[in-house]
Amino acid sequence: HITYMFFFLMIRRPPRSTQSRSSAASDVYKRQVLGYVKLFISFIKYMPQVYWNYKRRSTVGWSIFNILMDFTGGFFSILQIVIDYYDKGEVTTFTGGLNIVKFLLGIIAMSFDVIFMIQHYILYPEDKKGRFTIRNDIP
Q1: Over the chain, what HEC string results?
Q2: How far apart are CA 88 and CA 93, in angstroms?
Q3: Fewer CB atoms inside 10 Å of the end CB: C or N, the chain?
């Protein structure tokens, strides 16, 4: 419940009649905080799957297709930042600086996706009959 209260306080805006110049800076700050929260959650969300794949020595139960699409999305996100820089000499048209959250989200997604691909294709591949083996003998 505290999370919902925090989120509500972050996005709540004062009435238009009471807004001042400082509220615009406050809105930018709120967006930055929410961006870093998203970055933190995106980092944390991959950890359990990496752990359970390692513990079970298997990737049974999830689709590698989703991982390949996630990797592609991260790649294109970073590519957009590079193209923006090449085209305009700046990394984003909104701030004139690097959108660090977008850049790090692409890097985090691609890094975990590479870990998942290594687990799926190299460390715990399917057998010759197309089946994966689940090892439950590991403590």
Answers
A1: CHHHHHHHHHHCCCCHHHCCHHHHHHHHHHHHHHHHHHHHHHHHHHHHHHHHHHHHCCCCCCCHHHHHHHHHHHHHHHHHHHHHHHHHCCCCCCCCCCCHHHHHHHHHHHHHHHHHHHHHHHHCCCCCCCCCCCCCCCC
A2: 8
A3: C
The pTM assigned to this predicted structure is: 0.71
pLDDT at residue 66, as a whole number: 94
Q: Give the end-to-end CA distance of the chain in Å, rounded to a whole number.
A: 36
Nearest by Cα to 57 from 129, 128, 127: 127
The pair of structure tokens assigned to 4 is 């919902």
Helices 21-56 and 2-11 cross at an angle (nearest 10°) of: 140
Tell me, what's the pLDDT at 126?
Answer: 76
- Report residues of the chain scoring pLDDT below 70: 1-25, 28, 89-97, 127-139
Structural contact between residues 49 and 62, judged by C-beta atoms closer than 8 angstroms? yes
